[in-house]
Design goal:
This protein has 30 helices and nine strands. With 706 residues, it is mostly helical. Helix content is 54%, strand content 6%. Helix 3 (51-73) packs parallel to helix 6 (112-133), helix 7 runs antiparallel to helix 8 (156-170) and helix 21 (527-533) packs across helix 27. The protein is globular and about 80 Å long. The strands form three sheets. A five-stranded mixed beta sheet has the order 3-4-5-9-6, sandwiched between helices. 49% of the residues are buried. Among the domains are: 209-272, no CATH class; 383-556, Neurolysin, domain 3 (Orthogonal Bundle), CATH 1.10.1370.
Length: 706
């Protein structure tokens, strides 16, 4: 996943709860959550936190949060913005700290024991969250401020915080009858448990599978780097030969380079049937539950569909606008995508014979052959120039060139795994700006994908600007016994993407924690991340870090030219693929009646207009589509294309003025990255760009229009 924020108060409403009374006195002194963090910048003391610390700290956090809420309710003064809205914003500090660390590590460094604890604690959190959002006395004070406050006396950020706070109650059941509130509690608790189970099934299915090959002849065509990594995996698992997994750095190279079609098919089927097979990891019933529970909650709150509920607070505003964008892009890109598929089919037929039919497990292999033929370019040519340490310096250095900030590794900051590094981020004047953690490699306790999160939000309180702690997590190619970690071009692009999210968090400059950084509309949050991807093919950028890991030679101009010429290769196919995910998402969440059918059949029908290759019987995307089922993108996957429209239009200004133009970069920092949700994103974008975005810049960048 390319985006995953920390679990803030708003997301607690999607979690869950049962509690037990604990005797905390004996463990308070030993539990690091209960004492001041005596660490650099008060970062989380991961070196001290143990599994047994979470539950007592969480239960005490709930107790303290309840006390904070009672203090607000029982305040004898009339409700005001400060004594109600701001007080509520800062309530539950301990709980926020514990929940943030626990659920972030449950994604990045989990275990069977931690997952069991998550199952236990999740309903406790939902109950607590519901106790707050459904508290009539608390909502009465919030509503009083909302209806009587002099909006002219509030700053724009304060007005938006007030609106967000009121909506947080109204959209989470505060206006329901007592009977419906009870129903809301039941539905949200079941939803939190089901999404958690969905996630755990995905991780378990990925970890349960491996493909072991002992005959080297079957691996013909595989690059040396991939074979060495597979041999190392085999060694780690106690196998002979070469072992491949469903993690991206292992799965991708076999699908792209292995000449043995049967092996490609075997691994493809394993990957694409992970959570739809008839075993304990099957997610079909979980999908039905999640979709129907979200529909039931939306309708209980007065909306026709979950999409109507979600899109009310998005730039797109409604399903009509979402579907209009998806439809425009489908019409614009589909003809070119069909031509791209035809070209790949032709090279496959030239290689295998006129009767050869291109199947899904052939796509990566033959499209890579065509790319190599057309541009004399493949991942193995550029990989030696993308040593992870150099890429890190290049990505950090890009931020230095654009914004003047610098990154200094701080080994005194505790980390949660030996692979993780922590850095102090210093502003242009040398002042402390943030902490950033980097976590690059796959492991059994980490879910697949890539994401950014916050361990601590930025805010200003009592005259102090409290700076954020952000983290970026990826699953990159690991180093081997003979080579350092050498990345593919796609992996470098992913690094830039997640780093863009990190910059959104790092530069946060709002007053209130829930308003800063990535706490923005979902269809705006991908702008800061996706705009960073535009720098990758730029010669000026590559020249700062792309040195051969053995010779130190700078990447040749001729190779850069090939990268530039190939950057639009199969761009239309990639767009249609993203549209298929967006249309599938909208099909699930635009429903106004419960779903009782077959998950596989429904998916096939929903994204049929976008399918460029024949569907493969038995495969399914929905059952492993964590973005829309458990990752916060329900009725929101279109956001990637919406934000791509924004990032293409925005980067056109960098292209026009110079990619390192200080005036443009400063404007982007001040008008987008620092502002968070303190103003409406349409206002922020117009202030930076001077216009609204259209799909024209994206189509021009992709070569669809000249």
């Amino acid at each position: 996943m390319k985006y995953n924020k920390t679990l803030t108060k708003s997301l607690l409403c999607a979690m869950a709860v049962v509690g037990a009374t604990l005797n905390l006195t004996s463990c308070m002194n030993k539990n690091p959550f209960f004492s001041e963090y005596k660490t650099p910048h008060e970062t989380a003391p991961f070196h001290k936190i143990k599994l047994e610390h979470y539950e007592p700290a969480l239960m005490e956090g709930i107790k303290q949060h309840e006390a904070d809420v009672e203090a607000i309710i029982n305040n004898p003064e009339d409700p005001t913005f400060e004594n109600t809205i701001v007080a509520l914003e800062y309530a539950g500090e301990l709980l926020d700290r514990v929940v943030t660390v626990f659920f972030t590590l449950n994604s990045a460094e989990t275990s069977d024991e931690m997952q069991a604890l998550a199952q236990k604690l999740s309903p406790v959190l939902t109950e607590h969250s519901n106790n707050i959002s459904l508290n009539e006395k608390l909502f009465a004070r919030v509503k009083a401020v909302y209806e009587t406050a002099d909006k002219r006396a509030l700053s724009t950020e304060q007005q938006r915080l007030l609106q967000k706070c009121y909506d947080g109650f109204a959209r989470n059941g505060a206006n329901l009858s007592e009977e419906d509130k009870a129903k809301y509690r039941e539905l949200t608790t079941e939803l939190s448990m089901t999404t958690l189970t969905f996630n755990q099934n995905m991780l378990k299915a990925t970890n349960a599978y491996s493909l072991n090959v002992t005959d080297s002849a079957r691996l013909k065509g595989m690059p040396e780097s991939a074979l060495e990594a597979a041999a190392q995996t085999a060694k780690e698992k106690g196998h002979e030969g070469w072992t491949f997994t469903l993690q991206a750095p292992s799965y991708g190279p076999l699908m792209m380079y292995c000449e043995d079609r049967d092996l490609r098919r075997e691994l493809y089927m394993a990957y694409n049937t992970q959570n739809v097979q008839d075993n304990e990891f099957n997610n079909e019933e979980n999908v039905k539950k999640i979709v129907n529970l979200r529909l039931a909650i939306a309708q209980l709150l007065g909306y026709e569909s979950h999409a109507d509920y979600v899109l009310e607070n998005r730039m797109a505003e409604n399903a009509v606008n979402v579907n209009q964008l998806l439809g425009q892009l489908l019409d614009a890109y589909l003809p070119a995508a069909k031509e791209e598929v035809k070209a790949v089919q032709e090279i496959a037929a030239r290689t295998e014979g006129a009767d050869f039919k291109l199947e899904a497990w052939d796509w990566s292999f033959y499209s890579e052959k065509l790319r190599s033929e057309k541009y004399s370019l493949n991942d193995e040519m550029v990989r030696p120039y993308f040593k992870l340490e150099n890429v890190t310096n290049g990505v950090f250095g890009l931020a230095t060139r654009l914004y003047g900030i610098t990154f200094v590794e701080n080994k005194d900051i505790p980390v949660f795994h030996p692979d993780v590094k922590a850095y102090d981020v210093l502003d242009k004047d040398g002042s402390y700006l943030a902490v950033i953690y980097t976590d690059f490699f796959p492991r059994a306790g980490k879910r697949s994908g890539a994401w950014m999160t916050n361990f601590k939000e930025q805010y200003k309180k009592d005259g102090v600007d409290s700076r954020p702690h952000v983290s970026i997590t990826m699953n990159f190619t690991k180093p081997t016994e003979s080579k350092p970690a050498l990345l593919t071009q796609d992996e470098v692009e992913t690094f830039l993407h997640e780093f863009g999210h990190a910059l959104h968090g790092i530069f946060a400059a709002t007053t209130y924690p829930s308003m800063g950084g990535t706490n923005v509309y979902r269809d705006f949050v991908e702008l800061p991340s996706q705009i960073m991807e535009n720098f990758l093919p730029k010669k000026e950028f590559l020249a700062t870090f792309a040195f051969h890991y053995e010779t130190g030679e700078l990447i040749p101009d001729e190779l850069i030219e090939r990268i530039v010429r190939a950057q639009n290769y199969n761009a239309a196919y990639a767009c249609i693929r993203q549209l298929s995910f967006g249309m599938l998402d909208m099909a699930w969440y635009s429903r106004t009646t419960p779903f009782e059918g077959d998950v596989k059949a429904y998916e096939k029908e929903a994204w049929a207009p976008t399918q460029l290759l024949d569907a493969v019987e038995g495969t399914n995307m929905t059952t492993r589509f964590g973005h829309i089922m458990s990752g916060g993108y329900s009725a929101g996957y279109y956001s990637y294309k919406w934000s791509e429209m924004l990032d293409a239009d925005a980067f056109a200004l960098f292209d026009q003025m110079g990619i390192y133009n200080e005036i443009v970069a400063t404007s982007f920092r001040k008008n987008v990255l620092e502002k968070g949700s303190s103003e409406h994103p349409k206002v922020l974008y117009r202030r930076f760009r001077g216009q609204d975005a259209t799909i024209d810049a994206m189509m021009k960048r992709d070569g669809i229009i000249k």
